[in-house]
Design brief:
It is a single chain. By secondary structure, the protein is mainly α. The protein is built from 7 helices and 2 strands; from the N terminus they run αβαβααααα. It is elongated and about 55 Å long.
């Protein structure tokens, strides 16, 4: 569910949660941005996103209220755990916190094998070694983005690690 959807109100959120099938998974992405007010665009009289009608109180009531169920899993993602209100992530509302950090050597190897299933383990190790050799760990998203540049070119995915013009080096600028 996108809490920033302009058609979503407290009542609608509560309704959607109450009619979600049992044993379902509900994903609330970027929960840290759900209640951020955006600045009005200069001279145009409109806001640039997040003009939602779901209130923080409405979300808390939905998570705790009649619509909550022991047979549904609610996942919330955030890039900024420290920005979340303690009321949202208190025990009982959030039972497990799991950080998905930067890619380990093992994850790099597994990702290469999953993206290029016909490639050998030594090639996957070579990929992992070259990424680790950059000296800066990378996120899973950065690695996936690199693979997308070389969808049908497993050798190119390895050979272009460290290439100043593309991929993993360019992504350092975003860190």
């Amino acid at each position: 569910m996108n809490l920033s959807d302009r058609n979503l109100s407290d009542d609608r959120l509560n309704h959607l949660m109450s009619v979600a099938p049992q044993q379902s998974i509900i994903l609330l992405e970027d929960i840290d941005a759900a209640f951020v007010k955006r600045i009005e665009e200069k001279g145009e009289g409109r806001t640039s996103g997040y003009a939602n009608r779901v209130t923080f109180s409405g979300l808390l009531n939905t998570l705790d209220g009649v619509a909550s169920s022991e047979e549904r899993l609610v996942f919330m993602t955030t890039n900024h755990l420290n920005r979340l209100d303690p009321a949202l992530i208190r025990p009982g509302r959030v039972d497990v916190k799991q950080e998905i950090g930067l890619a380990s050597r093992s994850q790099l190897h597994k990702m290469y094998k999953r993206f290029y299933p016909d490639q050998t383990s030594p090639r996957a190790e070579e990929f992992a070694d070259r990424v680790i050799g950059l000296g800066q760990r990378k996120s899973i998203a950065q690695i996936q983005g690199h693979f997308m540049l070389f969808k049908n070119d497993p050798s190119g995915a390895i050979e272009n690690i460290g290439n100043q013009d593309i991929s993993l080096i360019k992504m350092n600028e975003l860190d």
